[in-house]
TrEMBL record:
Location of the Ferritin/DPS domain: 26-165
Cross-referenced PROSITE patterns: DPS_1 (PS00818), DPS_2 (PS00819)
GO molecular function, one term: ferric iron binding
Keyword entries, A-Z: DNA-binding
Family recorded in the similarity comment: Belongs to the Dps family.
Superkingdom, taxonomy of origin: Bacteria
UniProt-listed Pfam families: Ferritin
Cited Gene3D superfamilies: 1.20.1260.10
NCBIfam families reported in the protein's UniProt record: PRK09448.1 (NF006975)
Matches recorded under SUPFAM superfamilies: Ferritin-like
Record bears the keyword rRNA processing: no
Name the record gives this protein: Putative DNA-binding protein with ferritin-like domain
Length: 166
């Protein structure tokens, strides 16, 4: 479970109230940590996958890694645009990610696909809640950002699940 750390707020001319900005920064910190975590879970799978469909899965994981790396940057930039201080280090991600640790002993492509799908699905569910929170707070830009991330996660789930669905 993620632990929250109070984030320093910078002065900004952003029109969102300081109270809403503060709650959105905390929300985005959690999703930034999770984005960093899933980015390197995906890269871990990319580096270590083996099997008959190696090249296809290896390339899929690399593509997914690139997409999640973009989420890291987009979330961090939104967080700082509304006056927050991004906590984007690996250590901060480790402390604040919503995801379970990724097993370091996986090798078979199907095992990586299933485990990564679980991580993507867990984050996707949290993104849905974040979308609701941003909407209720009255921050349509954060809501839109999280919607785009959720759409990408769902596509990643589809690409991975298609390998083992009948």
């Amino acid at each position: 479970m993620a632990k929250t750390t109070k984030t320093k707020m910078h002065k900004t001319m952003n029109p969102i109230s300081e109270n809403i900005r503060g709650s959105m920064v905390e929300l985005l910190q959690t999703h930034l940590a999770t984005a960093v975590d899933i980015t390197y879970q995906t890269k871990q799978a990319h580096w270590n996958v083996k099997g008959m469909n190696f090249i296809a899965v290896h390339e899929l994981f690399d593509d997914l890694h690139e997409e999640t790396e973009e989420y890291v940057d987009t979330i961090a930039e939104r967080l700082t645009a509304i006056g927050g201080q991004a906590h984007g280090t690996v250590q901060a991600a480790s402390e604040n990610s919503l995801l379970d640790p990724y097993p370091l002993d996986l090798v078979k492509s199907e095992d990586h696909l299933k485990r990564l799908t679980e991580s993507y699905a867990k984050w996707s569910a949290a993104i849905e809640k974040g979308i609701e929170e941003a909407s209720e707070a009255g921050d349509p830009l954060t809501e839109d950002l999280l919607t785009a991330v959720g759409r990408g996660l769902d596509k990643g789930i589809y690409f991975m699940e298609s390998h083992f669905q009948a």
